[in-house]
Amino acid sequence: MLEKIKPDLAPTRTQLVAVSKTKPTSAIQDLYDRGQRIFGENRVQEMVEKWEALPRDIEWHLIGHLQRNKVKYIAPFVSLIHSIDSLRLLKEVDKQAQRQERVIDVLLQFHISEETTKFGLELDEARALLDSEDYRAMAHIRVVGVMGMATFTDRKEQVRAEFRNLRQIFEELQQSYFDSTPHFFEISMGMSGDYLLAVEEGSTLVRIGSLLFGAR
Ligand SMILES: *Cc1c(COP(=O)(O)O)cnc(C)c1O
Known about the structure:
The protein is of the alpha/beta class. The protein has helices spanning about 1-10, 25-35, 45-55, 70-75, 85-100, 125-130, 135, 155-175, 195-200, 210-215; strands at about 15-20, 40, 60, 80-85, 105-110, 140-150, 185-190, 205-210. It is built from 10 helices and 8 strands.
């Protein structure tokens, strides 16, 4: 399916995160051999094991909910954390990044769906985070954008409205907090079932699993 997705993304600035959770390293190696370099995982231990086993120039993105006590395991190598949903978690990432003498790029995850179970910030919580003294003191993280998951539904207009909402959140934060910071430019949205809509609404990172690797 890489051959179908690639041309969809080619005329855009959207990058593909190949979501390889639950899939064996052989399946990742296969996509790697066909040129894919960005892979997304949602479990820390699984990501660490795959990082150890696979080529070093893979960019590993953590896309799932992250517990603070597990940040230390991915801090040496993770290239982007999509799922920052609290100041406490961000502080831990900053601390572990400092230990590794790195700066770790992160996205703020927003709750944009109708579903109540999904993690994520509301806009006012994100503002409070970005206004805090704690945040301003952090020298080892870089907030490079936002992430969100749309409601799992066939109602396309619902999904489109949620993606549009995330894009508006991105633009508001950009104006208020990241006006002179060109590295704030990522909007992570879109999965196997809705990535074309997400691209239309301005996604810069689509996270695609089952369409690439088959059902989990
Ligand atoms: C699993 C997962 C995906 C990919 O889902 P598919 O429907 O298989 O493309 C994307 N984002 C997150 C956060 C996920 O956990």
